[in-house]
Amino acid sequence: MAIVTYNPFVQNASGAVGKQLVFKRYYDKTVISKMPDMSRRVLSEKQIESNERMRMANLYAKFIYKTEEGKLKARIRLKLPAHKSLFHALVKEYLDIFKPISLEELYKIDFTLPLVPPAGNSGVTDKPSRIE
Predict the structure, then answer these.
(1) What is the pLDDT of residues 91-104, one digit of tens each?
(2) Do residues 51 and 106 both lie within one domain?
(3) 73 and 92 co-located in one domain
(4) Residues 115, 130: contact at Cβ < 8 Å?
């Protein structure tokens, strides 16, 4: 691992170069290291479930993000100012609504209808309601 402070060629570099080197930025320093070997990584059940929930939340946000109409309706529904990220707000909405529901129940839900938390609730529900 090499730490670079004042080299103009790698001063603002970050990311990977061919699956061999990784450039990381820490404040005013650039650290160059080898790519980590993740092949022997073993995830716990909780990590696998969390990864799956995040994958589904991203799919939900991408589905709404496909059309300008969907983005506009979501921004109004979430009362989101223009300077805030709509995608992040949609991921958070999904995770908040479906936190108490198991993955098996999530796989059974039809996501083609818009999701809305019940009236008078802060977004955390036992079961989501739908607009039909």
Answers:
(1) 999 999 888 888 88
(2) yes
(3) yes
(4) yes
